[in-house]
Amino acid sequence: MSTRGGGRQSMSELKLRRLLEHNQRLREDLARPRVKVSEASASLIAYCRNTKDHLVPSVWGPVGRADDPYGQQATGKCCTVQ
């Protein structure tokens, strides 16, 4: 009978430890800085309006070869050997 009592004690200690760990994780989540959805969406809209995307020429217009970071660079060489 004493082993059952000891088993129950260890089970309750295990449950308590799990609850304390879960409580700690919840406190860490609560302490995490939050941004309102309206602020985040306004920031995203401002970024999209101010950052030129060369892959969307229908919005930003045609891109010159010198300005296109995704185009081939005119180096005169066809390949490089390392």
Automatic annotation (TrEMBL):
BP terms from Gene Ontology: G protein-coupled receptor signaling pathway; pheromone-dependent signal transduction involved in conjugation with cellular fusion
UniProt signal peptide: none
InterPro entries reported for this sequence: G-protein_gamma-like_dom, GGL_sf, Ste18_fungal
Subcellular location field: Membrane
Superkingdom, taxonomy of origin: Eukaryota
UniProt keywords, alphabetically: Lipoprotein, Membrane, Methylation, Palmitate, Prenylation, Transducer
Membrane topology: Peripheral membrane protein
Xref: PROSITE patterns: G_PROTEIN_GAMMA
GO CC annotation, single: heterotrimeric G-protein complex
Domain named G protein gamma: residues: 7-82
Any one GO molecular-function label of the UniProt entry: G-protein beta-subunit binding
Family to which this protein belongs: Belongs to the G protein gamma family.
Record PANTHER family: GUANINE NUCLEOTIDE-BINDING PROTEIN SUBUNIT GAMMA
Quaternary structure note: G proteins are composed of 3 units, alpha, beta and gamma.
Protein name: Guanine nucleotide-binding protein subunit gamma
